[in-house]
Give the backbone structure.
Amino acid sequence: MGKLIIVSNRVGSLKDTGKAGGLAVALVDVLRERGGVWFGWSGAVSDEGTFGEFKIERSKQVELVQLDINKADYDEYYAGYANRTLWPILHYRLDIAEFDRPFEEGYRRVNERFATRLKPLIKPDDLIWVHDYHFLPFASTLRAMGVENRIGFFLHIPFPSPDIITALPRHGALIRSMLAYDLIGFQTMRDRNHFIDYLVQEQGGRVVDDDVVSVYGREITVRAFPIGIDATGFATFPDSPEGKRQQQRIRQAQRDRAQIVGVDRIDYTKGIPHRFRGFERLLEEYPENRGRVTFLQIAPSSRSEVDAYADIQRELEGLAGQINGRFADVDWTPIRFIARGFPRKALAGIYRASRIGLVTPLRDGMNLVAKEYLAAQDPENPGVLVLSRFAGAAEELRESVIVNPYSAAEVAAALQTALQMPLDERKSRHALMFERIVRNDAHNWATRYIRALGG
Ligand SMILES: O=P(O)(O)OC[C@H]1O[C@H](O[C@H]2O[C@H](CO)[C@@H](O)[C@H](O)[C@H]2O)[C@H](O)[C@@H](O)[C@@H]1O
Ligand SMILES: O=c1ccn([C@@H]2O[C@H](COP(=O)(O)OP(=O)(O)O)[C@@H](O)[C@H]2O)c(=O)[nH]1
């Protein structure tokens, strides 16, 4: 059995700092089991860029191998084609995407340089697993260099219908380059079906078997693999010292008030302003909640060099101020908006102390916060997850209160339902979903994918 090579823009960590997400931890576990390499960007920008020395971290049979990129790569690849063109289009936001950025510019250059640097590390039996929209053409670049290994791809973000994806200039060339993969995985059946529709409608593909599409003489497996978290591990976090400390702080400050919590990177896909308006509508239409319910939004900044991200924080500060100005009382502040991140053990305590987890993206590949909120609940007295129908997680978490995030009235009604939900119903909904996220945890997800790839 050859080693596993994981390629992704962000690379996990071998140190258990508690900061790494469940996904990073799960992938490191899988690498530890069979030995392997995790290859990607170091997160640093330097003059040598991809021509510089590898930054290597080793532990037993796992190696993290990382490269810098240079300023032009950062602007054209990460902050450029990946996050100004692909990210908005794949999240259905044609209105803010940049259409005049050819992928042949920095995006393809960085893919080619990373592939060139990876090539000498590849042995004939190795399995290669490439992640996310930063590296769509990676396999085709490797194939052009003569690499014949099994290569799989997993897309962490949505894949929209052909109507939308065909608005991407030169979509045909870019997506044809993905046909060099042997297995292409998506978060949901919806994304998988859109991709197959695209291959059939735009590239002359033919579905030959359940998950197999024949296109340009190749047979590619296209399947949904909804990503999981380390649910049993995360369930212990509220009882960690940091988790307990946060619960205590909230309970002291909130006394018997019900807390609603939202946790998201500041991103226009997450629907945070819509969510604020939904909470405002709750206070308007169900006035019995005034003085008795609070909303805490945690929102670390993200990709702030990209214009579409720059103004969201200011917009949220304005909205929170407006809503607080309108409803606050001397002893009650309706919205607390915190524009920075928290470690995951602290988040777990915050989730446990919150009566509602409010997860309302306008589009999201999966949304791990939804799963973490459930994992952190006390099974004997769980809170309620209010979840957007447009999060990938909604395909699995059917017992949450599902909402249309665009409708403030619907969000307000869902919050009211959640606030009034009897204990028995909360327990039964939570038990069903918790059992499901334990069964499909991050480790099972990775193992299933690798098996499907032939590992
Ligand atoms: O690396 P950044 O630019 O700082 O962004 C953070 C990550 O955002 C995206 O996350 C996605 O993956 C999650 C796990 O599968 C999924 O739950 C979520 O819905 C997605 O948005 C992005 O896909 C990652 O590559 C980024 O590292
Ligand atoms: O202050 C924060 C906010 C978020 N997260 C973590 O960031 C991840 C967010 O993943 P999700 O799939 O919800 O969205 P993404 O940001 O990947 O689009 C989750 O594991 C969160 O626990 C965190 O550690 N601290």
Notes: Residues 71-90 form the longest helix (20 residues).
